[in-house]
Amino acid sequence: MKLAITFAVLVLLLLALPHAGPLFHAWQPSLPHPLYTRTSFLALTLAHLSLVLAATLAAVAIGLSLGILATRPASRSLLPTVRAVAVIGQTFPPVAVLAIAVPLLGFGAAPTLFALVLYGVLPVLGQAVAGLDQVPAAALHAADGMGYGRWRRLLDVELPLAAGPIMAGIRLSAIVSVGTATIGSAVGATTLGSPIVEGLVGNNPAYVVQGALLVGVLALTVDAALAAVERRVRR
Questions:
Q1: How many CB atoms lie within 10 A of CB 66?
Q2: The dihedral of CA 121, 127, 129, 135: what is its sign?
Q3: Most exposed among 59, 63, 90, 216, judged by the fewest C-beta atoms under 10 Å?
Q4: Residue 174: its pLDDT value, please?
Q5: Fold of the CATH domain 2-234
Q6: Which DSSP letter does residue 193 get?
Q7: Domain map (residue ranges) of the chain
Q8: CA–CA separation, 196 and 212 (whole Å)
């Protein structure tokens, strides 16, 4: 139900905002251009969502792989280091990551994608380690007693039992990406941050509100979609 409501609100906004010029003009009559028209809101939303999807998939692949590696008996000594990195990495501001990435990758989507993947890996990694580390020893011993090899035990026992925390990490990673992607417009990426950045630079609060509305509703929609997936995985 929540997903249907948030998705309906998102579609309604995408349909209504291009015709909301009179409404924003009434709110800010001093603005000569109260409605953002440089790029369509639908194109901005699709570009934003594409970046988030690509970054989340990459973050899940990297974070889950590192989480599995860190919880194997042969590399168990890496577990404290992995946990520390997962915590410390969240303290770096996204703007700093973009500032480092731009000289290396140039302007546009590439540095934004790099920053999103870097931030998205950390929640997945932290939750994967937490989930796999909390798998009951009795379940592991039972799998060994049934003759499961390392890979079969991982796929059939450990990952299913750790699916709840892992999905929570994926959900957090995606939501962080939705919000962080807006900053990418400051380095030339096409996202829903474009009207926000242009509004801040040009002292146009109407642009800021239009972009913020879409980012907020998109974040709620993505969260609701992943929450539905998480409920199914937990069952």
A1: 19
A2: negative
A3: 90
A4: 93
A5: MetI-like fold (1.10.3720)
A6: H
A7: 2-234
A8: 7
**Number of Cβ within a 10 Å radius of residue 170:** 25
Query: What does the buried/exposed string (b/e) look like for 101-127 if buried means 16 or more CB atoms within 10 Å of the residue's CB?
Result: bbeebeeebbbbbbbbbbbbbbbbbbb
Token pair for residue 222?
A: 């993505």
Q: Tokens 């540095």 — which residue?
A: 111
pLDDT at 164: 87
- CA torsion 135→232→179→19, rounded to 10°? 180
| Residue reference for tokens 């000569």 | 32
Q: How many helices (H) and strands (E) does the chain have?
A: 12, 0
Task: List, for residues 110-158, the tens digit of each pLDDT value.
Answer: 888 888 888 888 889 888 988 888 888 888 888 888 888 888 888 888 8
Residue type, 20: A
- Residue 11 has a pLDDT of 94
Predicted pLDDT of residue 47: 94
Q: How far is 148 from 152, CA to CA, in rounded Å?
A: 6
Please, what is the Cα angle at 209 between 21 and 51, to 5 degrees? Answer: 110
How far apart CA 15 and CA 114 sit, in angstroms, is 31
Q: Which residues of the chain have pLDDT under 70?
A: 86, 89-90, 234-235
Phi, psi values for residue 36, rounded to 5°: -70, 125
